[in-house]
Amino acid sequence: MNSTGKHNAPLGADFLRHDSAPAAAGVEGYMEHDAAVYRTLLESTKAIPWKIDWATLAFSYIGPQIEALLGWAPSSWKTVQDWAARMHPEDRDKVVEFCVAQSKAGTDHEADYRALTSRGEYVWLRDVVHVVRDANGEVESLVGFMFDISERKKTEEKLAELQRELEALSFKDGLTGVGNRREFDAVLQREWSAAQRHAAPLSLIMADIDFFKSYNDYYGHVQGDACLKRVAAVLSEAVRPGDFVGRFGGEEFVLILPNTGADAARQVVERCRDRLSAEEIAHERSPFRQTVTASFGVGTLIPAAEADPVAFVNLVDSQLYLAKDNGRDCIAAVNRVG
């Protein structure tokens, strides 16, 4: 029975012959004779066979397996409109346009999409389509198979999620949880390019924990690691949404402030100092109130076309060392805007 309620033509002769060249009489007779065998083979597979008449865009056949998978009776698949209507809205336009274009061109093709079930859920399908031409080379019909690829898609999604998690981990400092040097390089390049395009100011802050070697020597490396984590948390809480905090190496941290002028950058770094002071992390070997402090180097510029981000980092780094030379627990800044 086909989708319109009429009996299908013998499946062996009609469905399986994909070319339009006349078959030898003996072969044709053999296929007609064993049409029931071919139908049984087709309808016993998990793949769902179907055929569409190109002139009418109507289904002349769809396998009964479709009802077991999606819940829609074969008789409900009348035209390609039924096929499109039962496709996920996010997939529909792209898949329909692709399949129509490939079919008009007479090109065999495949398409993955989510199909709606009668229960209101979605199942991932892969349609493998073969274009049948007539003796004049014109498109006569489309024949193909639908495959349930839901489990494959679930596996792919799990792998993709694991890949995203691995990528995220590869951009994070294992100790402090803030960005690592690799992420810093990527973010700086991205924000540098954006600042060049929009002629916008970009600010960079480098921070170094004062007398950290003495801290490690006195408290031990385990406590030193805990100190690094607390400083990283303080800096992360002090910045604004869209700013970047990373560990540059050792006890040195770096902050990237997109679209930020010198005055705003100064406010951010002052907030970092204030919050670190309020944290009151004990440091018996520090001359500054015996608590952990940091020195800061700050730089602001609008990147010119010939400017080099590495040179900018070196410039800010020199400001950091200037702050340390000036007694630590202070800020040194340079502004190349205006």
TrEMBL record:
<dbReference type="Pfam" id="PF08447">
    <property type="entry name" value="PAS_3"/>
</dbReference>
<dbReference type="GO" id="GO:1902201">
    <property type="term" value="P:negative regulation of bacterial-type flagellum-dependent cell motility"/>
</dbReference>
<dbReference type="InterPro" id="IPR000014">
    <property type="entry name" value="PAS"/>
</dbReference>
<protein>
    <recommendedName>
        <fullName>diguanylate cyclase</fullName>
        <ecNumber>2.7.7.65</ecNumber>
    </recommendedName>
</protein>
<feature type="domain" description="PAC">
    <location>
        <begin position="109"/>
        <end position="161"/>
    </location>
</feature>
<dbReference type="InterPro" id="IPR000160">
    <property type="entry name" value="GGDEF_dom"/>
</dbReference>
<dbReference type="InterPro" id="IPR000700">
    <property type="entry name" value="PAS-assoc_C"/>
</dbReference>
<dbReference type="GO" id="GO:0043709">
    <property type="term" value="P:cell adhesion involved in single-species biofilm formation"/>
</dbReference>
<dbReference type="InterPro" id="IPR043128">
    <property type="entry name" value="Rev_trsase/Diguanyl_cyclase"/>
</dbReference>
<feature type="domain" description="GGDEF">
    <location>
        <begin position="200"/>
        <end position="336"/>
    </location>
</feature>
<dbReference type="InterPro" id="IPR035965">
    <property type="entry name" value="PAS-like_dom_sf"/>
</dbReference>
<dbReference type="InterPro" id="IPR013655">
    <property type="entry name" value="PAS_fold_3"/>
</dbReference>
<dbReference type="InterPro" id="IPR029787">
    <property type="entry name" value="Nucleotide_cyclase"/>
</dbReference>
<dbReference type="GO" id="GO:0052621">
    <property type="term" value="F:diguanylate cyclase activity"/>
</dbReference>
<dbReference type="GO" id="GO:0005886">
    <property type="term" value="C:plasma membrane"/>
</dbReference>
<dbReference type="InterPro" id="IPR050469">
    <property type="entry name" value="Diguanylate_Cyclase"/>
</dbReference>
<dbReference type="InterPro" id="IPR001610">
    <property type="entry name" value="PAC"/>
</dbReference>
<dbReference type="Pfam" id="PF00990">
    <property type="entry name" value="GGDEF"/>
</dbReference>
